[in-house]
Amino acid sequence: MLGQMMHRDLSIIEILKFAAENHSVSEVVSLRTEGDVHRYTYSDCLVRVSKLANAILNLGVKKGDRVATLAWNGYRHLELYYAISGVGAVCHTINPRLSAEQMLYILEHAGDSILFVDTTFVPIIEKLASKLPKNLVIIVMASSESMSNFSDEYLSYETLITESSQKIIWPELPENTAAGLCYTSGTTGNPKGALYSHRSTVLHALTISLNMGLFLGNGMKVLPVVPLFHVNAWGLPYAAPLTGTSLIFPGPNLDGASLFNLMDHENVNSAWGVPTVWLGLLEEIRNQGKAPSQFQNVVIGGSAAPKSMIEEFEGLGITVCHAWGMTEMSPVGTQGFLPQPMTKLLSSDEQILKKCNQGRRVFGVDLKIVDEKGSSLPHDGEASGELYVRGNAIISGYYKNEQSTEESFDKEGWFGTGDIASITSDGFLNIQDRAKDLIKSGGEWISSIDIENVVMGHPKVANCAVIAVSHPKWEERPLLVVVSNGNIRVTKQEIDDLLLGHIAKWQLPDAIEFLDALPLTATGKVSKLTLREMFANYKLT
User: Can you tell me the distance from the alpha carbon of 503 to that of 473, in angstroms, rounded to the nearest whole number?
Assistant: First the structure.
């Protein structure tokens, strides 16, 4: 027997329509590439999105066409999110930090017909001009007055909006219609595409609003430092309007001082981003001797948050939520908010240790860990294995990539994350390492993350990473790569003394090497792939 309820297909544009009606005074504030600050409401946003949608249709875009963006976090990029998907096309966000080879690959692979470009990224496109797909329409996200600086072949974003009608009848789309396309980065081989639907995106937004509601709501202001070109800024472009949260966009200014000033001036309550960004903000907080005035909580994801970072934020009275996810998961899979009963039972130190885990699954995501034979392991906090996931906002395959799809899913349809993890009986996920980053020494495994989290607490260390290097006897041994905090380098003995309170002696790094900065992936994570290439011929003495 079936229930007798109406069925209405889930649609992304309905989020913005809802926000314009119910949260009409909540704002979108943007630091623009022009250098000034732009602000308007969700109601204003819907008006411009309607015009932009008509402009896109007038350019000949049809349902299912891919429309690319190469842009910072700002109101124009937000408008593209809704206008492109609203007419049934696919919003394909491109990471400007990709190599030229990777960028050309995904433009060709996606089959984009239009490319919207922020002014600061026009030079990138001009260098690739001779290799870009034929008939690719390029639209610069600027006013007509600014277009004199660019090729006559480019169109003006603001002119398109000005010349378009606000009246639009949004098409009724099946909820499984493709809406967004995001490619993975930092992996070997070509990037792989995750193709999101209206259904998956709306469900993910509802999940974020439900499971991370402490950080969102009417009157709240959130700063997505995580880029809009990185997995939809972790769902904030959809969850924020849905909950009435004001969006504060930093544009291209992601250094610690710029973030501090913006957060302080705009009374930002919550900020979301990867650990490398928060290193800069914490340095500025130390320089200022205070945190931004209304800064209440920070969401840290993308890679493991060091214990020292969590302790420093919490010491400032800023609640840390350690989250985890993947491009293939839309991306949020777990969140580390500790409910009130747990905070009452645990000491401050115990709470910090809990927050060093990756948190518990959000609604709609199932987790399992398996051994080498694929058999499920218990969630007892002791057993560890490869982490598999399933859910309504997790891919069922890679876009136009049957081989990667076949390799990434088990017989039951679960997606293999490539992470080695354990899960406690109360649901806390502890990712011990990426499978490819584990160090196998004498038949035993060493976690690079465990070492990094401890070393990051040393005052002479600004940043660090651990990679495996070959060893004639033990197969692999850990090499510690350090960025110094100041002019005095930490010694091997100081590192050993610090680590011996946390790991076994045989797990200690065999050597330390120093760099001025760690290489980063296109999404701001430490690129261990690059480090392994740099030290490929490293000889331990």
Answer: 21
Question: Global pTM?
Answer: 0.89
- Are 27 and 218 a contacting pair, CB within 8 Å? no
Q: Read out DSSP for 508-532?
A: S-SEEEE-SS--B-TTSSB-HHHHH
Concerning whether 440 is annotated as a catalytic residue, the answer is: yes
- Cβ distance 92 to 110 under 8 Å? yes
pLDDT at 186 over 70: no
State the average pLDDT for the chain: 95
Domains of the chain listed by start with CATH number: 13-195 (3.40.50.12780), 253-435 (3.40.50.12780), 438-534 (3.30.300.30)
Active site residue 328: yes
- Among residues 184, 243, 521, 523, the one annotated as catalytic is 184
Is residue 119 annotated as part of the catalytic site, yes or no? no
Q: Which two three-digit tokens encode residue 36?
A: 């000034």
What's the mean pLDDT in 74-89?
98
What pLDDT is attached to residue 189? 74
Catalytic residue among 175, 284, 328, 386: 328
Catalytic residue among 187, 368, 405, 445: 445
Q: Is 163 a catalytic residue?
A: no
